[in-house]
């Protein structure tokens, strides 16, 4: 059973017998691949081989069940092959708290994520994994110019590889700088369409339109329908397959229709986490905001991007201890190859199962014939693993790589209030002034709109409905699903909170947890 993932994720032109003879050579070939990949294939009636890329960006799943190996592209796909599958209570608690499930576990008992950067053979009695890549921490004396040049070259190589033989090119474009970086590296004469989404023709769309004109590209605006994030929740959950918060499926259903005829769709996903300071625990920002962010070697010990389960008074102590134990084990595993920066990489390895917003990428892949996210490319991920943290801070390497190719677009304000070409104190003060000015203007506009009996305009890329809202569980779930949730939550919450959870007030459990409970219920219910 081979995974259908498109040519750019397709299998190497090597027979299974050839791979058996020399996995080392295969590993060397896999290390050189330009675009994200992942596949599995049956070697025999009771053996399945999984091949994953450097970051595990195409997550694959397996289970050893009743003298056979089950395999799938989602945890749900494997679960549906099991005669009597069950949820893993600890994993569910982890998901409710963090929006992901700690590697290598999934929401279901006995179903695991295939190891990243490896060729893994699974039989009913054994899992044998040959690792060809780990994102090892490295010391480097290379200057900023080196990292900027390398980043630009590798992203461009991934773009060119993704363009090969393709027509009808489309790019997911926004008011931010990441999509500008991608478009600036596309061949100048290439015909492509930039696509941006928003609730209305708001500030986000205007920023994107100005940048598109500066890049001499055509842009299409697609308006997000009212109530989009509350539509088709069950179908989104089951298509993504469990373990990712579907609030991040920003392009879905009718909103994805304009992308389905594209030969390839490009995006700028993960640039901020791999090459900027997002989710870094060792970045210091002055309390008075009088200067740009700085690297702080202290404070990198704890994992970033997750919550400590034992600090949540609504979780059962035994369950919270088990969640923390899994997260600690994952942290210690990363420390083996990243002793100084393991905390920052807790949600970056494997990227395909640990990033809370990964449902966005998975949804795009489901909607489009082919998707290329250059920052997920193996060679780009490898560069991120080698690059010292000092060049992530204040977007130093990112600016060195893309400021010049952006041209005029590099001088235009972004969604965050930045000017892409500026950093340091000047860039910081420009951003701070812009953010304050926008906040005051938005507040005045909102007050004016309410006085006139109108809804305030959402100026951002995501709808306000993307934020957390309180689910009425009795309306969202069937009777059987609701009963299943009662049993599940009795084993996850404290006795007091389990008693309050289904009441109108809801107890102390955050609304976000209620959103995620509905998602879990849709996976296993009717």
TrEMBL record:
Molecular function terms, GO-annotated: asparagine synthase (glutamine-hydrolyzing) activity
Coiled coil: none
Reactions mediated catalytically: L-aspartate + L-glutamine + ATP + H2O = L-asparagine + L-glutamate + AMP + diphosphate + H(+)
Pfam families named among the record's database cross-references: Asn_synthase (PF00733)
Entry EC number(s): 6.3.5.4
Sequence ranges assigned to domain Asparagine synthetase in this UniProt record: 151-396
Top-level taxon in the UniProt lineage: Bacteria
Pathway assigned to this chain's UniProt record: Amino-acid biosynthesis; L-asparagine biosynthesis; L-asparagine from L-aspartate (L-Gln route): step 1/1
Annotated PANTHER family: ASPARAGINE SYNTHETASE (PTHR43284:SF1), ASPARAGINE SYNTHETASE (GLUTAMINE-HYDROLYZING) (PTHR43284)
Record protein name field: asparagine synthase (glutamine-hydrolyzing)
The organism of origin for this protein: Thiocapsa imhoffii
